[in-house]
Design goal:
The complex is a heterodimer.
Chain A: E1 5-7, E2 10-13, E3 19-24, E4 31-38, E5 42-50, E6 53-57, E7 64-68, E8 74-78, E9 87-94, E10 102-103, E11 107-111
Parallel strand pairs in A: 2-11
Antiparallel strand pairs in A: 1-3, 3-8, 4-5, 4-9, 5-6, 7-8, 9-10, 9-11
Chain B: E1 3-7, E2 10-14, E3 19-26, E4 32-38, E5 44-50, E6 56-58, E7 64-68, E8 73-78, E9 87-94, E10 101-103, E11 107-112
Parallel strand pairs in B: 2-11
Antiparallel strand pairs in B: 1-3, 3-8, 4-5, 4-9, 6-7, 7-8, 9-10, 9-11
Classes of the chains: A mainly beta, B mainly beta.
Chain lengths: ~110, ~110
């Protein structure tokens, strides 16, 4: 058990819809990272927050947004969903810069 | 910019044989290097990391990796494969000046009985 909790585990929705994925980091971790994993693209870094502030952006689409709340949990919002957004979305947390990241078990998003 | 190349998307070894998973990196500064393992339906788990100091790094489950600057490599090895080692393995690199980790595309390790 990594200590990182992601909900829901599975999400099935339709094109054009909007969903919110939630992540609770390990106790004491200030950094939260979001990744997308798909068969064709592999593991892609989306965005990182540190203590409530956005710290780094990766290959995150404009239709996607995220935030980290004062209690350090984070949410990833995906809107105007397309078939290609079907993937595993992982959240990871770490104590700070260059510390090992601890991953949750992911949310599997299926777009029908 | 940093990048990671993992040679071989699939590797098969017999139980009890040597495991060797190859990773080459590109970095403009001395990097931090990581190996992660992903079991089915789970997130990634850190196997080992290299930051500075000793270039041979020992990790969990009997794995180790050696940082070779001259070859820009960080290959993962285990002397004797177990069936439980079947999983996907990711090499990753980060720039110590920032907090972004770049992952390779992964190598799926198959263990043959």
């Amino acid at each position: 058990d990594s200590g990182v909790t992601q909900t829901p585990k599975h999400l099935i929705t339709a094109t054009g819809q909007r969903v919110t994925l939630r992540c609770s980091p390990r106790s004491g971790d200030l950094s939260v990272y979001w990744y997308q994993q798909s068969l064709d693209q592999g593991l892609q870094f989306l965005i990182q927050y540190y203590n409530g502030e956005e710290r780094a952006k990766g290959n995150i689409l404009e239709r996607f947004s995220a935030q980290q709340f004062p209690d350090l949990h984070s949410e990833l919002n995906l809107s105007s969903l397309e078939l290609g957004d079907s993937a595993l979305y992982f959240c990871a947390s770490s104590m700070g810069p260059n510390q090992p990241q601890h991953f949750g078990d992911g949310t599997r998003l299926s777009i029908l | 910019a940093q990048s990671v190349t993992q040679l071989g998307s699939h590797v098969s070894v017999s139980e009890g044989a040597l495991v060797l998973l190859r990773c080459n990196y590109s970095s403009s500064v001395p990097p931090y290097l990581f190996w992660y393992v992903q079991y089915p339906n789970q997130g990634l788990q850190l196997l080992l990391k290299y930051t500075t100091g000793a270039t041979l790094v020992k990790g969990i489950n009997g794995f180790e990796a050696e940082f070779k600057k001259s070859e820009t490599s960080f290959h993962l090895t285990k002397p004797s494969a177990h069936m439980s080692d079947a999983a996907e393995y990711f090499c990753a690199v980060s720039d110590p000046r920032d907090d972004k980790i770049i992952f390779g595309k992964g190598t799926r390790l198959h263990i043959l009985p």
